[in-house]
Amino acid sequence: MSTNKKNKFTEGKLINSLLSLALPIIFANILQSAYQLIDTFWLGRIGADAVAAVSLSFPLLFLVLSIGAGLTLAGTVMVARYQGAGNQKMVDFSSSQSVFLIFLTSIVLAIVSYFAAGPLMKVIGAGPDIIEDSTTYFEVSSLGFVFLFIFFIFQSLMRGIGNVMLPVYIVLCTVILNAVLDPLFIYGYGPIKGYGVAGAAVASVITQAVAATIGLVILFRGKHGIKISLSSMYFNMENLKRTFNLGLPASIEQSTRALGMTFMMVIVTSFGSDIVAAYGIGARMLSFIVVPALGLGIATTSLVGQNIGALKIKRAEKVARLSAKLAFFGFTGLGLIMFLVAEPLTAFFIPNDLQVIKDGALFIKIMSISFGFLGLQQVMNGTFNGAGFTKASMFISIMSLWLVRFPLAYVLANTLGYGPEGIWWSFPISNFIAGIIAFIYFKTGYWKKRLIRDRSFLTSQQ
């Protein structure tokens, strides 16, 4: 990457640097969430049980993906720092190592997930009306983990060096392809057999394979800022240790988040398939906020990492403050909009079930009041990750989900008798607490003190 490109993120106006990274990342993340939304749209035409089957699988899919997601975050952090330090040799080597580790991890997770699909669905309480569809959907989806992980690490590496537009183009093309393949494999056409719920997973796996192939070709050719090589794909213990020091806390953070979603689903399933469907719709609407919030957090991680690599600590802190303001006020505004259109949004996905529409809309309205704090937490996590302090994000997420949201949901829904509405209220309460704690921790400045001992690897050689 040219010096001018690098200076774009370590010099000049902060708002320009942040938005030039954040907007494409947010757009790409929204496009990726469209996979689930497209699935939900077409499956909703089959009925609430079809939506419930996929909704039941989603937390488990997220759990498996989150185990390897920390490694992709480690790739972003290391590549961003080496890029900021102008060390192209280590950018390429670190990228090769990341692709190698993600590939091996994805194979193991795909095999384990496929054979564990049935027992996992029983554990989280799948009813007899949806267990077959939910199991099949999870089995087919697990076959695509290798492709999905490869594209994830491609995106992470590109974002680390600031090349954020290239993944957007690829995701846009694959989402369009998925929109075409979804009804084809769900309902069938001509010689192509319809697979129902499983057809949505088949369409996703095909598009994921296309995206992964394109990503690998780009990385091996090396014309877009990173060039990986097979000769650099081996077990390098120094790089492996560094990756796990950064990536393991991030994996634990996202895994505990996914486990929290899974345990939440256990509570939700006790109220029947209609509530599961309402929860699934609400969760997908929540993803429309979480996805851009994560995008802003990832952009913050990359920008903080590059400025730390360039030894511009004060500029990194200014990035964090600006991101925090954008997140809090921006997502508060989005929450207000979603509050006002909650019912039409729910009806769009399940048009013929009035009770599901009512329950799903209530869930969305209750959640929407805390979206500003959710965004604040994500950019604070992005700051800590960019500084290499991934343990902070891990602790905050564990606290939010396991000490607040899950216990509160159970107590409100069952002990105090509020039912599903008690589950809905656990979301804004936990978002508020996590956002405040993350911001207070940022203000202590401890994350900056850690940077002195972390700078040494910036000039390390292969």
UniProtKB/TrEMBL annotation:
Fetch the InterPro entries from UniProt.
Answer: MATE_fam (IPR002528), MATE_MdtK (IPR050222), MdtK-like (IPR048279)
GO terms for cellular component: plasma membrane
What domain of life does the native source organism fall in?
Bacteria
On whether NADP is a keyword of this UniProt record, the answer is no
Its membrane topology is listed as: Multi-pass membrane protein
The protein's UniProt keywords, in alphabetical order, are: Antiport, Cell membrane, Ion transport, Membrane, Transmembrane, Transmembrane helix, Transport
Cell compartments where the protein resides: Cell membrane
Q: Does the keyword Transmembrane helix apply?
A: yes
Biological process annotations from GO: monoatomic ion transport
Name the NCBIfam families on file: matE (TIGR00797)
The protein in question is named Multidrug-efflux transporter
Species this chain originates from = Gelidibacter salicanalis
